[in-house]
Design a protein that fits this description.
- The structure is a single chain.
- By secondary structure, the chain is an alpha+beta fold.
- Helices cover 26% and strands 39% of the residues.
- It has a six-stranded antiparallel sheet.
- A hairpin with a 3-residue loop joins strand 4 (97-106) and strand 5 (110-119).
- It is globular.
Length: 137
């Protein structure tokens, strides 16, 4: 049975630190091997000059990976980030960002994902990340 976006949103609200919840992330789409989240534009997340901060994008990529793994496994399981690498390609100003985490390998103890972060307004790639997770449960 496929996890619904409402179930995935509940995973967000129940398992993440308050400061992550303040990003306002919401689950847009779930598939067997991926999750798409929306990071809404907020001036509170912008750095000097008006561009969305890299820290917000990295946290969103990390969070999207947890949701993708949870969807693939059918429920939330304890996990921890082992590695994350992010390349920023262009600034995002005054636009929501769509974060798509695609699982490239899901094993019993490790998960690997490729994440694209796209400015919704322009459709341009803002950042790309890869993550590695240890599955603890």
């Amino acid at each position: 049975m496929t996890m619904t976006t409402a179930e995935a949103d509940k995973i967000l609200s129940a398992n993440f630190a308050p400061w992550v919840l303040e990003l306002g992330l919401s689950v847009e789409d779930l598939r067997e091997d991926r999750a798409t989240l929306r990071l809404p534009w907020s001036a509170a997340l912008a750095r000097e000059g008006g561009a969305l901060s890299g820290q917000a994008l990295m946290a969103a990529a990390d969070t999207a990976t947890v949701i993708a793994v949870s969807a693939a496994r059918g429920a939330f399981v304890p996990m921890t980030t082992v590695q994350q690498s992010t390349a920023f390609q262009r600034a995002v100003t005054d636009s929501d960002v769509l974060i798509e985490a695609v699982l490239t390998k899901l094993g019993r103890r490790m998960a690997f994902a490729d994440i694209t972060m796209t400015a919704e307004r322009s459709g341009e790639l803002a950042a790309h990340a890869t993550t590695v997770y240890a599955l603890l449960g």
